[in-house]
Amino acid sequence: MEPILECRAISKWYGAKLALDRLDLTIPRGRIIRLLGPNGSGKSTLIKLCNGLLTPTGGELLIGGKAVGLETKKIVSYLPERTYLNSWMRVHELIAFFKDFYADFNESRAYDMLSRLSINPKDRLKTMSKGTKEKVQLILVMSRDSQLYLLDEPIGGVDPATRDYILNTILSNYNENATIIISTHLIADIEQILDDVIFVNQGHIVLTASVDEIREQKGMSVDALFREEFKC
Amino acid sequence: MLGKLIRYEISATGRLFLPFYGALIVFALINKLFFSFDTPVPDFIANVTMATYIIIIVAIVVLTYLVMIQRFYKNLLSDEGYLMFTLPVKSWQHIASKLVVAVMWTILSLLVTLFTIFLMVFNSEMIPHIQELVAEVQQEFAPLNHAAIVSLFLQLSVTALISSVATILMIYTSIAIGHLFGKHRVLASFGAFLGINFAIQSASSLFMAFIMPSTIEKLDEFDGAFVEIMNLLQGLFQISNVINILLCAVFFLVTSYILQKKLNLE
What we know:
The complex is a heterodimer of chains A (232) and B (266). By secondary structure, chain A is α/β, with parallel strands linked by helices. In chain A, 32% of the residues lie in helices and 26% in strands. Chain A is built from eight helices and ten strands. In chain A, the strands form two sheets. Chain A has a six-stranded mixed β-sheet, with helices on both faces. In chain A, strand 7 (148-152), helix 6 (160-172) and strand 8 form a beta-alpha-beta unit. The mean pLDDT of chain A is 88. With 266 residues, chain B is mainly α. Helices cover 86% and strands 0% of the residues of chain B. In chain B, helix 1 packs parallel to helix 4 (91-121) and helix 6 (146-179) packs antiparallel against helix 7. The longest helix of chain B has 38 residues, at 185-222. At the A-B interface, helix 2 and helix 3 of A face helix 1 and helix 3 of B.
Protein backbone atom coordinates (compact mmCIF):
# COMPACT_ATOMS: atom_id res chain seq x y z
CA MET A 1 0.00 0.00 0.00
CA GLU A 2 1.28 3.46 -0.80
CA PRO A 3 2.48 5.48 2.17
CA ILE A 4 0.07 8.00 3.64
CA LEU A 5 2.72 10.72 3.75
CA GLU A 6 5.79 11.18 1.64
CA CYS A 7 8.22 14.11 1.80
CA ARG A 8 10.79 14.34 -0.95
CA ALA A 9 13.59 16.81 -0.25
CA ILE A 10 11.13 19.24 1.25
CA SER A 11 12.60 22.63 2.23
CA LYS A 12 11.07 25.64 3.89
CA TRP A 13 12.69 29.02 4.32
CA TYR A 14 11.17 31.86 6.32
CA GLY A 15 12.93 34.79 4.72
CA ALA A 16 16.58 34.06 5.46
CA LYS A 17 15.84 31.46 8.10
CA LEU A 18 15.86 27.79 7.17
CA ALA A 19 13.09 25.84 8.93
CA LEU A 20 13.24 22.54 7.05
CA ASP A 21 16.31 21.40 5.17
CA ARG A 22 15.66 19.00 2.26
CA LEU A 23 13.73 16.66 4.46
CA ASP A 24 12.96 13.13 3.25
CA LEU A 25 10.33 11.20 5.11
CA THR A 26 7.98 8.33 4.38
CA ILE A 27 5.20 7.47 6.77
CA PRO A 28 3.16 4.30 6.28
CA ARG A 29 -0.52 3.85 7.00
CA GLY A 30 -1.81 2.49 10.26
CA ARG A 31 0.77 3.95 12.65
CA ILE A 32 0.66 6.22 15.68
CA ILE A 33 3.70 8.42 15.44
CA ARG A 34 5.18 10.89 17.80
CA LEU A 35 6.93 13.90 16.32
CA LEU A 36 9.54 15.11 18.78
CA GLY A 37 11.93 17.97 18.85
CA PRO A 38 12.86 21.12 20.71
CA ASN A 39 11.01 24.39 20.14
CA GLY A 40 11.62 25.76 16.68
CA SER A 41 12.90 22.46 15.29
CA GLY A 42 10.42 22.44 12.40
CA LYS A 43 7.62 20.20 13.73
CA SER A 44 4.82 22.70 13.24
CA THR A 45 6.27 23.79 9.90
CA LEU A 46 6.14 20.20 8.67
CA ILE A 47 2.56 19.76 9.85
CA LYS A 48 1.46 23.06 8.30
CA LEU A 49 3.05 22.07 4.99
CA CYS A 50 1.03 18.84 5.05
CA ASN A 51 -2.12 20.94 5.39
CA GLY A 52 -1.27 23.41 2.67
CA LEU A 53 -1.17 26.30 5.14
CA LEU A 54 2.42 26.88 4.11
CA THR A 55 3.92 26.61 0.66
CA PRO A 56 7.20 24.67 0.51
CA THR A 57 10.23 26.53 -0.82
CA GLY A 58 11.41 23.35 -2.53
CA GLY A 59 10.70 19.65 -2.79
CA GLU A 60 7.55 17.63 -3.01
CA LEU A 61 5.02 16.55 -0.45
CA LEU A 62 2.50 13.80 -1.17
CA ILE A 63 -0.41 12.62 0.94
CA GLY A 64 -1.89 9.32 -0.14
CA GLY A 65 0.10 9.75 -3.35
CA LYS A 66 -1.39 13.15 -4.16
CA ALA A 67 0.06 16.65 -3.96
CA VAL A 68 -1.47 18.72 -1.15
CA GLY A 69 -4.77 20.16 -2.37
CA LEU A 70 -8.51 19.68 -2.40
CA GLU A 71 -8.31 15.86 -2.45
CA THR A 72 -5.79 15.57 0.39
CA LYS A 73 -7.77 17.98 2.58
CA LYS A 74 -10.67 15.54 2.46
CA ILE A 75 -8.59 12.83 4.14
CA VAL A 76 -6.48 14.87 6.57
CA SER A 77 -7.78 15.90 9.97
CA TYR A 78 -5.72 18.64 11.54
CA LEU A 79 -5.56 20.08 15.02
CA PRO A 80 -3.53 23.29 15.06
CA GLU A 81 -1.53 24.38 18.07
CA ARG A 82 -3.70 27.49 18.42
CA THR A 83 -7.35 28.42 18.84
CA TYR A 84 -8.57 28.65 15.31
CA LEU A 85 -12.34 28.41 15.61
CA ASN A 86 -14.68 31.39 15.44
CA SER A 87 -15.21 32.35 19.06
CA TRP A 88 -18.77 33.59 18.46
CA MET A 89 -20.00 30.19 17.27
CA ARG A 90 -21.80 27.75 19.53
CA VAL A 91 -20.51 24.20 19.78
CA HIS A 92 -23.49 22.72 17.93
CA GLU A 93 -22.98 25.27 15.14
CA LEU A 94 -19.37 24.18 14.85
CA ILE A 95 -20.48 20.57 14.64
CA ALA A 96 -22.90 21.50 11.86
CA PHE A 97 -20.08 23.36 10.13
CA PHE A 98 -17.75 20.35 10.24
CA LYS A 99 -20.55 18.04 9.12
CA ASP A 100 -21.30 20.33 6.20
CA PHE A 101 -17.77 20.45 4.89
CA TYR A 102 -16.31 17.07 5.79
CA ALA A 103 -18.00 14.02 4.36
CA ASP A 104 -16.16 11.84 6.90
CA PHE A 105 -17.46 13.69 9.97
CA ASN A 106 -19.26 11.51 12.48
CA GLU A 107 -21.82 13.70 14.23
CA SER A 108 -23.02 11.23 16.84
CA ARG A 109 -19.47 10.50 17.93
CA ALA A 110 -18.91 14.22 18.46
CA TYR A 111 -22.06 14.55 20.62
CA ASP A 112 -21.09 11.45 22.61
CA MET A 113 -17.70 12.89 23.43
CA LEU A 114 -19.21 16.25 24.33
CA SER A 115 -21.59 14.70 26.80
CA ARG A 116 -18.85 12.51 28.29
CA LEU A 117 -16.80 15.64 28.92
CA SER A 118 -19.92 17.55 30.09
CA ILE A 119 -19.64 20.27 27.48
CA ASN A 120 -22.93 21.92 26.64
CA PRO A 121 -23.42 22.04 22.84
CA LYS A 122 -25.28 25.33 23.23
CA ASP A 123 -22.29 27.12 24.78
CA ARG A 124 -20.34 29.64 22.80
CA LEU A 125 -16.61 29.12 22.46
CA LYS A 126 -16.10 32.66 23.73
CA THR A 127 -17.37 31.75 27.20
CA MET A 128 -15.17 28.67 27.59
CA SER A 129 -11.89 28.21 29.42
CA LYS A 130 -8.77 27.55 27.40
CA GLY A 131 -8.80 23.87 28.33
CA THR A 132 -12.45 23.44 27.34
CA LYS A 133 -11.83 25.12 23.99
CA GLU A 134 -8.99 22.67 23.35
CA LYS A 135 -11.31 19.80 24.21
CA VAL A 136 -13.89 21.03 21.70
CA GLN A 137 -11.26 21.37 19.00
CA LEU A 138 -9.92 17.90 19.70
CA ILE A 139 -13.43 16.41 19.68
CA LEU A 140 -14.17 18.00 16.30
CA VAL A 141 -10.93 16.77 14.81
CA MET A 142 -11.20 13.25 16.22
CA SER A 143 -14.82 12.89 15.12
CA ARG A 144 -13.70 12.60 11.54
CA ASP A 145 -12.91 9.24 10.01
CA SER A 146 -9.78 10.49 8.35
CA GLN A 147 -6.81 8.66 6.96
CA LEU A 148 -4.25 11.00 8.46
CA TYR A 149 -4.58 12.88 11.73
CA LEU A 150 -2.10 15.65 12.39
CA LEU A 151 -2.28 16.76 16.00
CA ASP A 152 -0.05 19.69 16.88
CA GLU A 153 0.35 20.03 20.64
CA PRO A 154 -3.09 18.56 21.25
CA ILE A 155 -3.19 18.08 24.99
CA GLY A 156 -1.17 20.97 26.33
CA GLY A 157 -3.83 22.81 28.32
CA VAL A 158 -5.96 19.85 29.27
CA ASP A 159 -6.14 18.35 32.78
CA PRO A 160 -4.77 14.80 33.35
CA ALA A 161 -8.18 13.11 33.73
CA THR A 162 -9.40 14.55 30.43
CA ARG A 163 -6.05 13.74 28.89
CA ASP A 164 -6.58 10.07 29.72
CA TYR A 165 -10.07 10.18 28.28
CA ILE A 166 -8.81 11.85 25.09
CA LEU A 167 -5.98 9.37 24.66
CA ASN A 168 -8.47 6.55 25.05
CA THR A 169 -10.70 8.24 22.53
CA ILE A 170 -7.86 8.49 20.08
CA LEU A 171 -7.16 4.82 20.55
CA SER A 172 -10.75 3.62 20.41
CA ASN A 173 -11.60 5.64 17.32
CA TYR A 174 -8.44 4.56 15.70
CA ASN A 175 -9.06 3.07 12.32
CA GLU A 176 -6.48 0.41 11.49
CA ASN A 177 -5.47 2.06 8.26
CA ALA A 178 -5.30 5.58 9.62
CA THR A 179 -2.10 7.19 10.75
CA ILE A 180 -1.89 9.61 13.63
CA ILE A 181 1.00 12.01 13.94
CA ILE A 182 1.19 13.73 17.32
CA SER A 183 3.56 16.52 18.08
CA THR A 184 3.87 17.20 21.78
CA HIS A 185 6.27 18.00 24.58
CA LEU A 186 4.29 16.11 27.19
CA ILE A 187 6.24 12.95 26.86
CA ALA A 188 5.59 10.13 29.30
CA ASP A 189 1.81 10.44 29.00
CA ILE A 190 1.45 9.02 25.55
CA GLU A 191 4.35 6.65 25.32
CA GLN A 192 2.14 3.58 25.76
CA ILE A 193 0.07 4.30 22.66
CA LEU A 194 2.92 5.05 20.27
CA ASP A 195 4.28 2.90 17.48
CA ASP A 196 7.05 5.10 16.14
CA VAL A 197 9.02 8.17 17.06
CA ILE A 198 10.50 10.77 14.76
CA PHE A 199 13.08 13.14 16.21
CA VAL A 200 13.41 16.47 14.44
CA ASN A 201 16.07 19.04 15.11
CA GLN A 202 16.98 22.21 13.25
CA GLY A 203 15.05 21.23 10.18
CA HIS A 204 16.52 17.75 9.94
CA ILE A 205 15.25 14.35 10.90
CA VAL A 206 17.64 13.08 13.51
CA LEU A 207 16.13 9.72 14.20
CA THR A 208 13.22 7.57 13.06
CA ALA A 209 12.59 4.48 15.14
CA SER A 210 9.86 2.37 16.62
CA VAL A 211 9.32 2.68 20.34
CA ASP A 212 10.21 -0.98 20.77
CA GLU A 213 13.51 -0.48 18.99
CA ILE A 214 14.38 2.39 21.27
CA ARG A 215 13.59 0.31 24.33
CA GLU A 216 15.50 -2.73 23.09
CA GLN A 217 18.52 -1.15 21.47
CA LYS A 218 19.11 1.85 23.63
CA GLY A 219 17.58 0.45 26.78
CA MET A 220 15.71 3.64 27.60
CA SER A 221 12.32 5.23 27.26
CA VAL A 222 11.54 7.74 24.53
CA ASP A 223 11.49 10.38 27.24
CA ALA A 224 14.99 9.54 28.41
CA LEU A 225 16.29 9.37 24.86
CA PHE A 226 14.80 12.79 24.08
CA ARG A 227 16.47 14.30 27.13
CA GLU A 228 19.78 12.79 26.08
CA GLU A 229 19.56 13.76 22.40
CA PHE A 230 18.53 17.33 23.08
CA LYS A 231 20.53 17.96 26.22
CA CYS A 232 20.98 21.67 26.70
CA MET B 1 -19.34 23.91 -1.54
CA LEU B 2 -19.57 27.52 -2.71
CA GLY B 3 -23.18 27.64 -1.52
CA LYS B 4 -22.17 26.39 1.93
CA LEU B 5 -19.36 28.91 2.18
CA ILE B 6 -21.77 31.70 1.25
CA ARG B 7 -24.26 30.52 3.85
CA TYR B 8 -21.62 30.59 6.61
CA GLU B 9 -20.32 33.92 5.42
CA ILE B 10 -23.81 35.39 5.67
CA SER B 11 -24.32 34.10 9.19
CA ALA B 12 -20.88 35.33 10.24
CA THR B 13 -21.51 38.85 8.93
CA GLY B 14 -25.27 39.13 9.40
CA ARG B 15 -24.91 39.29 13.17
CA LEU B 16 -22.92 42.51 12.63
CA PHE B 17 -25.14 44.19 10.04
CA LEU B 18 -28.65 43.31 11.20
CA PRO B 19 -28.48 45.19 14.54
CA PHE B 20 -27.42 48.33 12.65
CA TYR B 21 -30.25 47.94 10.14
CA GLY B 22 -32.65 47.47 13.04
CA ALA B 23 -31.37 50.58 14.79
CA LEU B 24 -31.63 52.59 11.58
CA ILE B 25 -35.26 51.61 11.08
CA VAL B 26 -36.08 52.35 14.74
CA PHE B 27 -34.58 55.85 14.54
CA ALA B 28 -36.27 56.53 11.21
CA LEU B 29 -39.59 55.66 12.86
CA ILE B 30 -38.83 57.91 15.85
CA ASN B 31 -37.99 60.78 13.50
CA LYS B 32 -41.16 60.19 11.55
CA LEU B 33 -43.15 60.24 14.78
CA PHE B 34 -41.60 63.58 15.72
CA PHE B 35 -42.36 65.04 12.28
CA SER B 36 -45.98 64.07 12.56
CA PHE B 37 -46.71 65.65 15.97
CA ASP B 38 -49.01 68.65 15.80
CA THR B 39 -47.17 70.45 18.54
CA PRO B 40 -43.56 70.27 17.46
CA VAL B 41 -41.13 68.32 19.62
CA PRO B 42 -38.44 70.49 21.23
CA ASP B 43 -35.71 71.10 18.69
CA PHE B 44 -33.08 69.64 20.92
CA ILE B 45 -34.65 66.19 21.05
CA ALA B 46 -35.56 66.11 17.37
CA ASN B 47 -32.01 67.13 16.49
CA VAL B 48 -30.53 64.40 18.63
CA THR B 49 -32.63 61.64 17.08
CA MET B 50 -31.97 62.95 13.57
CA ALA B 51 -28.24 63.18 14.25
CA THR B 52 -28.28 59.64 15.62
CA TYR B 53 -30.02 58.46 12.48
CA ILE B 54 -27.33 60.04 10.31
CA ILE B 55 -24.55 58.66 12.48
CA ILE B 56 -26.01 55.17 12.05
CA ILE B 57 -25.94 55.63 8.27
CA VAL B 58 -22.27 56.64 8.46
CA ALA B 59 -21.62 53.68 10.76
CA ILE B 60 -23.21 51.30 8.24
CA VAL B 61 -21.00 52.63 5.44
CA VAL B 62 -17.90 52.24 7.62
CA LEU B 63 -19.05 48.81 8.77
CA THR B 64 -19.51 47.64 5.18
CA TYR B 65 -15.86 48.38 4.39
CA LEU B 66 -14.55 47.24 7.74
CA VAL B 67 -16.31 43.88 7.54
CA MET B 68 -15.17 43.47 3.92
CA ILE B 69 -11.53 43.88 4.95
CA GLN B 70 -11.80 42.06 8.26
CA ARG B 71 -13.53 38.99 6.84
CA PHE B 72 -10.90 38.57 4.16
CA TYR B 73 -7.90 39.27 6.36
CA LYS B 74 -9.01 37.75 9.64
CA ASN B 75 -11.07 34.83 8.42
CA LEU B 76 -8.65 33.72 5.71
CA LEU B 77 -5.19 35.01 6.50
CA SER B 78 -4.93 34.96 10.30
CA ASP B 79 -5.69 32.21 12.86
CA GLU B 80 -9.13 31.46 11.42
CA GLY B 81 -7.43 30.68 8.11
CA TYR B 82 -6.22 27.47 9.79
CA LEU B 83 -9.80 26.30 9.66
CA MET B 84 -10.80 27.80 6.32
CA PHE B 85 -7.81 26.55 4.35
CA THR B 86 -8.04 23.02 5.72
CA LEU B 87 -11.60 22.72 4.43
CA PRO B 88 -11.82 20.73 1.22
CA VAL B 89 -12.75 23.72 -0.95
CA LYS B 90 -10.87 25.53 -3.70
CA SER B 91 -9.17 28.85 -2.99
CA TRP B 92 -11.23 30.72 -5.57
CA GLN B 93 -14.39 29.61 -3.78
CA HIS B 94 -13.23 31.38 -0.62
CA ILE B 95 -12.75 34.59 -2.59
CA ALA B 96 -16.04 34.21 -4.46
CA SER B 97 -18.04 33.54 -1.30
CA LYS B 98 -16.58 36.57 0.47
CA LEU B 99 -17.15 38.72 -2.61
CA VAL B 100 -20.76 37.69 -3.14
CA VAL B 101 -21.63 38.37 0.48
CA ALA B 102 -19.78 41.71 0.56
CA VAL B 103 -21.69 42.84 -2.54
CA MET B 104 -24.91 41.61 -1.00
CA TRP B 105 -24.41 43.73 2.16
CA THR B 106 -23.43 46.76 0.09
CA ILE B 107 -26.67 46.55 -1.88
CA LEU B 108 -28.74 45.74 1.19
CA SER B 109 -27.26 48.67 3.14
CA LEU B 110 -28.21 50.98 0.30
CA LEU B 111 -31.74 49.58 0.05
CA VAL B 112 -32.33 49.74 3.81
CA THR B 113 -31.12 53.35 3.90
CA LEU B 114 -33.38 54.33 0.98
CA PHE B 115 -36.25 52.52 2.64
CA THR B 116 -35.80 54.43 5.92
CA ILE B 117 -35.65 57.76 4.08
CA PHE B 118 -38.87 56.86 2.35
CA LEU B 119 -40.31 55.79 5.70
CA MET B 120 -39.49 59.14 7.27
CA VAL B 121 -40.58 61.53 4.57
CA PHE B 122 -43.57 59.69 3.21
CA ASN B 123 -47.03 60.64 4.38
CA SER B 124 -50.40 61.06 2.68
CA GLU B 125 -49.91 64.81 2.18
CA MET B 126 -46.95 64.07 -0.01
CA ILE B 127 -48.80 62.09 -2.64
CA PRO B 128 -49.69 65.19 -4.73
CA HIS B 129 -46.12 66.46 -4.43
CA ILE B 130 -44.75 63.14 -5.60
CA GLN B 131 -47.14 63.12 -8.53
CA GLU B 132 -45.96 66.60 -9.40
CA LEU B 133 -42.35 65.50 -9.20
CA VAL B 134 -43.00 62.46 -11.39
CA ALA B 135 -44.74 64.67 -13.95
CA GLU B 136 -41.84 67.10 -13.92
CA VAL B 137 -39.29 64.35 -14.38
CA GLN B 138 -41.33 62.92 -17.21
CA GLN B 139 -41.40 66.28 -18.92
CA GLU B 140 -37.67 66.71 -18.48
CA PHE B 141 -37.04 63.30 -19.93
CA ALA B 142 -39.75 63.77 -22.57
CA PRO B 143 -37.45 63.10 -25.51
CA LEU B 144 -36.84 59.65 -24.05
CA ASN B 145 -39.59 57.15 -23.84
CA HIS B 146 -40.42 55.15 -20.78
CA ALA B 147 -38.35 52.16 -21.78
CA ALA B 148 -35.29 54.34 -22.35
CA ILE B 149 -35.50 55.79 -18.84
CA VAL B 150 -35.76 52.34 -17.33
CA SER B 151 -32.85 51.11 -19.41
CA LEU B 152 -30.74 54.11 -18.42
CA PHE B 153 -31.47 53.42 -14.77
CA LEU B 154 -30.59 49.76 -15.20
CA GLN B 155 -27.34 50.64 -16.94
CA LEU B 156 -26.46 53.00 -14.14
CA SER B 157 -27.11 50.25 -11.59
CA VAL B 158 -25.07 47.72 -13.52
CA THR B 159 -22.17 50.15 -13.82
CA ALA B 160 -22.33 50.91 -10.10
CA LEU B 161 -22.44 47.19 -9.32
CA ILE B 162 -19.47 46.34 -11.52
CA SER B 163 -17.40 49.16 -10.14
CA SER B 164 -18.14 48.17 -6.55
CA VAL B 165 -17.15 44.57 -7.33
CA ALA B 166 -13.90 45.93 -8.77
CA THR B 167 -13.28 47.97 -5.62
CA ILE B 168 -13.87 44.99 -3.34
CA LEU B 169 -11.60 42.76 -5.43
CA MET B 170 -8.95 45.47 -5.41
CA ILE B 171 -9.03 45.45 -1.61
CA TYR B 172 -8.72 41.64 -1.60
CA THR B 173 -5.82 41.76 -4.04
CA SER B 174 -4.03 44.33 -1.89
CA ILE B 175 -4.41 42.16 1.21
CA ALA B 176 -3.23 39.10 -0.74
CA ILE B 177 -0.16 40.98 -2.04
CA GLY B 178 0.58 42.10 1.52
CA HIS B 179 0.48 38.44 2.50
CA LEU B 180 3.45 37.76 0.20
CA PHE B 181 5.66 39.69 2.59
CA GLY B 182 7.31 37.95 5.50
CA LYS B 183 6.83 40.83 7.91
CA HIS B 184 4.68 43.95 8.21
CA ARG B 185 1.93 42.37 6.15
CA VAL B 186 -0.74 44.92 7.04
CA LEU B 187 1.54 47.79 6.08
CA ALA B 188 2.46 46.01 2.84
CA SER B 189 -1.25 45.51 2.06
CA PHE B 190 -1.84 49.20 2.55
CA GLY B 191 1.10 49.99 0.29
CA ALA B 192 -0.20 47.57 -2.35
CA PHE B 193 -3.60 49.28 -2.22
CA LEU B 194 -2.05 52.72 -2.74
CA GLY B 195 0.13 51.34 -5.53
CA ILE B 196 -2.74 49.72 -7.44
CA ASN B 197 -4.87 52.79 -6.93
CA PHE B 198 -2.11 55.03 -8.26
CA ALA B 199 -1.60 52.82 -11.32
CA ILE B 200 -5.32 52.81 -12.15
CA GLN B 201 -5.67 56.56 -11.57
CA SER B 202 -2.69 57.32 -13.81
CA ALA B 203 -3.96 55.03 -16.54
CA SER B 204 -7.45 56.48 -16.45
CA SER B 205 -6.31 60.11 -16.45
CA LEU B 206 -4.08 59.31 -19.40
CA PHE B 207 -7.07 57.72 -21.09
CA MET B 208 -9.24 60.73 -20.26
CA ALA B 209 -6.62 63.08 -21.64
CA PHE B 210 -7.01 61.38 -25.00
CA ILE B 211 -10.77 60.94 -24.98
CA MET B 212 -12.02 63.95 -23.10
CA PRO B 213 -11.07 66.86 -25.41
CA SER B 214 -12.99 65.36 -28.30
CA THR B 215 -15.91 64.56 -26.03
CA ILE B 216 -16.08 68.11 -24.73
CA GLU B 217 -16.04 69.40 -28.28
CA LYS B 218 -18.89 67.11 -29.09
CA LEU B 219 -20.79 68.33 -26.04
CA ASP B 220 -20.52 71.88 -27.34
CA GLU B 221 -21.92 70.81 -30.68
CA PHE B 222 -24.79 69.03 -28.96
CA ASP B 223 -26.18 72.31 -27.86
CA GLY B 224 -27.68 70.66 -24.83
CA ALA B 225 -29.67 68.11 -26.79
CA PHE B 226 -30.78 65.74 -24.09
CA VAL B 227 -30.90 62.52 -26.06
CA GLU B 228 -27.37 62.93 -27.36
CA ILE B 229 -25.97 63.60 -23.91
CA MET B 230 -27.70 60.45 -22.77
CA ASN B 231 -26.11 58.51 -25.60
CA LEU B 232 -22.74 59.90 -24.68
CA LEU B 233 -23.24 58.94 -21.04
CA GLN B 234 -24.23 55.44 -22.06
CA GLY B 235 -21.08 55.19 -24.13
CA LEU B 236 -18.99 56.21 -21.12
CA PHE B 237 -20.79 53.67 -18.93
CA GLN B 238 -19.96 50.95 -21.41
CA ILE B 239 -16.29 51.86 -21.55
CA SER B 240 -16.14 51.98 -17.77
CA ASN B 241 -17.88 48.59 -17.58
CA VAL B 242 -15.43 46.94 -19.95
CA ILE B 243 -12.43 48.35 -18.07
CA ASN B 244 -13.84 47.39 -14.69
CA ILE B 245 -14.69 43.87 -15.80
CA LEU B 246 -11.13 43.42 -17.04
CA LEU B 247 -9.81 44.75 -13.72
CA CYS B 248 -12.11 42.38 -11.83
CA ALA B 249 -10.76 39.43 -13.80
CA VAL B 250 -7.14 40.42 -13.15
CA PHE B 251 -7.76 41.04 -9.44
CA PHE B 252 -9.60 37.76 -9.03
CA LEU B 253 -6.91 35.74 -10.79
CA VAL B 254 -4.06 37.37 -8.89
CA THR B 255 -5.76 36.88 -5.51
CA SER B 256 -6.68 33.33 -6.36
CA TYR B 257 -3.12 32.55 -7.47
CA ILE B 258 -1.63 33.96 -4.27
CA LEU B 259 -4.03 32.07 -2.00
CA GLN B 260 -3.44 28.85 -3.86
CA LYS B 261 0.26 28.93 -4.61
CA LYS B 262 1.79 31.37 -2.15
CA LEU B 263 -0.11 30.78 1.06
CA ASN B 264 2.07 31.09 4.19
CA LEU B 265 -0.04 31.45 7.31
CA GLU B 266 1.89 32.71 10.30
